[in-house]
From TrEMBL:
Full protein name: phosphoenolpyruvate--protein phosphotransferase
Gene giving rise to this polypeptide: ptsP
UniProt lineage: Bacteria, Pseudomonadati, Pseudomonadota, Alphaproteobacteria, Rhodospirillales
Subcellular location: Cytoplasm
Full-sequence portion shown in this chain: 409 to 732 of 735
Protein family (similarity comment): Belongs to the PEP-utilizing enzyme family.
Amino acid sequence: RIAEYATLRDLPAVTRDGTPIKIMLNAGLLIDLPHLHATGADGVGLYRTEIPFMVRASYPDVATQLETYSKVLDEAKGKPVVFRTLDVGGDKTLPYFPELGEENPALGWRAIRIGLDRPAMLRKQLRAMLMAAGGRELRVMFPMVAEVAELDRARKVLDLELARLARQGHKAPASLQVGVMMEVPSLLFQLDALLPRIDFMSVGSNDMLQYLFASDRGNPMMNNRYDLLSPAMLRVLKLLVEKCGAAGVNLSLCGEMASRPLDAMALLGVGLRTISLSAPAFFDVKNMLRHLDLRELSGFLDRLYDCADHSVRPRLRDFARDRG
Ligand code: PEP
Ligand code: MG
């Protein structure tokens, strides 16, 4: 298996019918970074900044954050890294953050909502990212954006920090790309306003499943009740592929869905060309796509957008099995 993977690492991530695919990795700790080179992945599609926050005993200051983000960029050795701003609240808590006792934490004070209400926190985090990326490429992604106005406010904070950096004579990033997580369905109905404002978008399928189907992602009773391989989700993805494609916005998906080869196959069939997954899934997914006839799959998928039962997954499984 190891030898097989070593070969696979150096083979191009291209479908059998010739479409190149970008496979990126999800990361959160520095120990995740060596996987980038061991796998030959295209970059880090989701760097969860809350992970280093979660394993600490106190809130990290700017210098500590700067050190972390610099190391991440150093370790990436020029491959792109998407830094997601702090996504705490909901299922992710910080030991030194107040217990809020919310009745519905998943629908509560979390992610960018906290950042906008506590702008000093967001400013410090963005400052650390901008400083770490001085003279290098920086990609910043905001989590749980539900309204375009939230993105505008976050962007303003970013611009303030950029100006501050320039005033103090720090080197600016060589380039700056701004994106959002697509994980709150309200954003699907604001695409015309949203897309001209962003460079990239990454679908958070874990939260999108939760909010699209009103189904708690952490509740075992809800496990397997709804399926991402369903007409509703496939249509969401198809809409995003079309709209992002037309607007020139890079679309990716970084939820756990991308780490399951059958689900990843469906994502490519719907039209995604970039996915971000966990390192252990890398070679299985790469191997899958190298055997995939994308044109045949899109034709097959066209017949599944109106399935009224749970047959999308078994039908895709049959499709994959029949083709080895
Ligand atoms: C997601 O929601 O799919 C996602 C990638 O973000 P997280 O799992 O960190 O909420
Ligand atoms: Mg999420």
